[in-house]
Design a protein that fits this description.
Layout: H1 14-26, H2 31-40, H3 47-65, E1 75-85, E2 88-97, E3 102-108, H4 113-125, E4 134-137, H5 142-152, E5 161-164, H6 170-183, H7 192-209, H8 221-231
Helix pairs in contact: 1-3, 1-7, 2-3, 3-7, 4-5
């Protein structure tokens, strides 16, 4: 195996680093859980080291997998969920299409029209998203205001329907539970910076696991691992 520049000066092989990042971002594990799991394999890795790996390589994983995502459909479901950061609630904006494929996500300190507009704008610019035909949202008044602003700016086509009907968003509310399950072992985040970087890793692994990568199927776990190694330049 090669040893790319991204892993230069690391005391562990890239495969071990990515294994820990994959497991932490995919399963409901704490850093101390992973420390023990590595110890069972004869590797002495401190939980704080694994934490640094996730913060460094989680965002890298998200960035590197984006060009390989399959196109999504034009029926959007948009919602936000709460994430605890240093004892205070922040807001994770998320969107999926009608088949459950992730469109985009954004962590925000506030839950208002400005944040909703910023998120919708971000999702519209994502390379793998289609221009929406309909956007399902809950009763949050921020979304109609954000959509009106985007239509005025011509960033959102006038004919797009915004449907503020809560029950139509059951799919994304179910999808939020995966985030909650992953966050729970760590009891929240110590800073906004830490939360944002870790959530990028969570969402990247979710997209890979959902089968959103163009060349890798949903149930092809071996293929998913090979894909991650490839985009980090450590493929055999």
């Amino acid at each position: 195996m090669s040893h790319p520049v991204l892993f230069k000066w690391k005391h562990f092989q890239p495969e071990i680093i990515l294994l820990n990042v994959r497991w932490y971002c995919r399963y409901a594990l704490s850093y101390r859980d992973l420390e023990e799991m590595m110890a069972e394999r004869g590797l002495s890795v401190d939980h704080s080291t694994i934490n640094r790996w996730v913060l460094q390589y989680g965002p890298e994983l998200e960035q590197r997998c984006r060009p390989h995502l399959r196109p999504t459909n034009d029926s959007w479901k948009v919602d936000e969920t709460y994430v605890n950061v240093k004892g205070a609630w922040t807001y994770l904006y998320r969107a999926v299409d009608s088949s459950g494929q992730t469109l985009d996500f954004m962590l925000s300190a506030k839950r208002d029209a400005k944040a909703a507009k910023r998120f919708l704008k971000k999702a519209l610019k994502a390379r793998h998203t289609s221009t929406p035909r309909v956007i399902n949202v809950d009763k949050n008044a921020a979304y109609p205001a954000a959509a009106d602003d985007l239509k005025t700016e011509r960033a959102l086509p006038e004919e797009i329907e915004l449907r503020p009907v809560k029950y139509l968003n059951n799919m994304i509310e179910q999808d939020h539970r995966r985030i909650k399950r992953l966050v729970k072992p760590g009891l929240g985040f110590g800073s906004f910076h830490t939360a944002r970087r870790t959530l990028k890793g969570y969402e990247a692994m979710a997209m890979i696991r959902k089968g959103q990568i163009q060349t890798v199927d949903r149930d092809d776990v071996t293929g998913q691992i090979a894909f991650i190694h490839k985009i980090f330049g450590i493929a055999a």
